[in-house]
């Protein structure tokens, strides 16, 4: 890796990581903050746990995370899923949580709670989701790794799924993240180098219902932590480099029971038509800064126009050619930006396809 200001001495650290914990278990509580970022804190448990329901509720200072005012700053975190911890190993765990206010209501940035309600109400449709998380690896100076200092590499072309020096950068971070996800039980289904150099993608899914959001958020946490150890930065900004360079998205693949049946193409087309009727509402929750990415160029549709088509990466919704030939399968929504919240994406998807519920409107959620 290039020069870094990060101080890390793995050899010294490992002496301490091997010490006996005397039966104690470390639980890393993970939550989403008020700026769509990841925060964590560690709790010592007296014994191993097998289910998130065994874990206690905890709290944090919401005034320091953009989630509460200073005069009423306690925000509570309730465990919703657990994963083996690839950094500490043993019985230590990662804990995905929801944020709740002191009055017993979901915090305004808790998008998971309403998404769960919609998933549960429409469980008979067995929704499967698969998200393709693109991201860019930056050096300590904030410039893409491997790029000339203050300059640019050769134009796009050789980098997508590339192999070899000068075509790919930071594969060590990508491979480490892949292994960490597998150890943690994340439903990661693949990785590849993307069109812009130092831009990569990992895929999570297919997962049913709310599991997709849980797994993607924990996968993001793991990516940030791995990059931390290598002295690199991760950005999921939709257009990290202006100009003739691809942006980064979070392409969302969706399938329901009816779509997977013979003749499911009709259900796919029906869903595509419904999505078109709420195009603006979806765009509003599909990530910040997406207008810079969705220009109609660089394999994107125009933000101002909605379309769906077979095998067209310039459409809002792409129906894979294989699905069209088989007459069933899934569709890919190519509009979400890389920094979009998966709970919001899957939540509004369910709302649009199957109808809303009292008290839930993802298009009017806090931004």
Task: Summarize the structure in words.
The chain is built from nine helices and 13 strands. β1 (25-32) and β2 (38-45) form a beta hairpin. 43% of the residues are buried. The chain is of the alpha+beta class and 367 residues long. Strands 6, 7, 8, 9, 10, 11, 12 and 13 form an eight-stranded mixed β-sheet that branches. It has a five-stranded mixed β-sheet with strand order 2-1-5-4-3, covered by helices on one side.
Structural class: alpha+beta
Q: Distance N terminus to C terminus? A: 36 Å
Helix content: 25-40%
> Rg to the nearest angstrom?
21 Å
Taking pLDDT < 50 over at least 5 consecutive residues as the criterion, the unreliable ranges are none
What is the strand content? Answer: 15-25%
What's the short story on this structure?
It contains 9 helices and 13 strands. The protein is α+β, with helices and mostly antiparallel strands. The strands form 2 sheets. Strands 6, 7, 8, 9, 10, 11, 12 and 13 form an 8-stranded mixed beta sheet that branches. A 5-stranded mixed beta sheet has the order 2-1-5-4-3, with helices on one face.
Which features would summarize this protein structure in a list?
9 helices, alpha+beta, single chain, 367 residues, globular, eight-stranded mixed beta sheet, five-stranded mixed beta sheet
